[in-house]
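Technical note accompanying the year-one report. For the benefit of new consortium partners, we illustrate the data format agreed upon in the data management plan: each record pairs a sequence with a structure-token string. No post-processing was applied to the example shown here.
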Amino acid sequence: MAVLLGVILTAVAYCILLERKVSAWMQDRIGPNRVGPAGLLQPLADGVKFFIKEDIISARVDRAMFVLAPAMAFTVAGVGFAVIPWAGMVRIGGELLRAQVATIDIGLLYILAVGSLAIYGVVLGGWASNNKYSLYGGIRGAASMLSYEVPMGLAILVVVLTSGEVRLERIVDQQIGHTWNILLNPVAFIILLTTAFAETNRAPFDLAEAEQELIGGYQTEYSSMKMALFYLGEYFHMITSSAFISVLFLGGWELFPWSDRTGWAWVQWLNHAPTWGAMACRFGVMFAKVFAFIFFFMWIRWTLPRFRFDQLMGLCWKGLVPVGLLAVTWAGVLVYQGCPMSFWATVGNAVIVAAMLTCVAVRPPRLSGRQLDLPPVRA
């Protein structure tokens, strides 16, 4: 597990390099390529730079809380991945062990509890800075993260109802050889993916650090390694969220849906063999899915503009929460009636999507600001 921790921490550092490369690719630039071959040592140079930068602490701040906030943001983001199953079972010294830091009976509840603690780092950072822009950023971050935890919980509840499990490794075991949850509950998948952007404070949900309005948001007064810890915590949270979504909806380390039904020997070996080679291959499959989600996070950041705050809250309370309630209600009815999940769950999700599209199509566009003062258009 120490090896796994080292891999994850290294991945966090290189996610920053990947972000810069992706942004350069989308803006038709080259990106960092000076430090090491093809710029691969850039994270090391960035780390050294942050360590030697001057650590400025204003005399107005609450020093204890000011120092605690970035440490809490990084630590809380890091402990969530402890219950993520990465590669199934492996035999060590005649004993079967899971490639997982901690196996607990309430893995889903643990993820939700730890994820909610991430709010404290943002709020403490904004309040302890004794700066109005930092305080506004902290309040915005707390409001968005608290609000989006409601639809996130509803999406996770759909998976709990359909699988009957709260242990992440058993949710993966139920999907291996069977239908992935993304095919059974695509609406819940979309809700969870959307809320993951808000929970990680990623664009277009990064109103807590909107540069045009709040300078740097809750990070305005931070410098040196304290600021770096906030960024590392954000990328750590992004990796954990990507792995969490892969486990719940994409079958974890399974290569493709219904793979056990093919009868191919290499597929059986990949899915179930407790050898080191099979575990490495399963970890590679899981890593590929996580990497795809991380790239999607970065792609969205450099593609979509930032929401207004009222749009952010409206999307949550007027969009995701009602749709999540419909998805939970439908999943509960199917479980209570004992209906075939593979067919009726898909039908229910199709009806929900059709209802959403109908509401969007018939709803008149909202006018605000200067649009209300414009003269009517005459044919």
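Partners are asked to follow this layout when depositing records. The chain has a mean pLDDT of 84.
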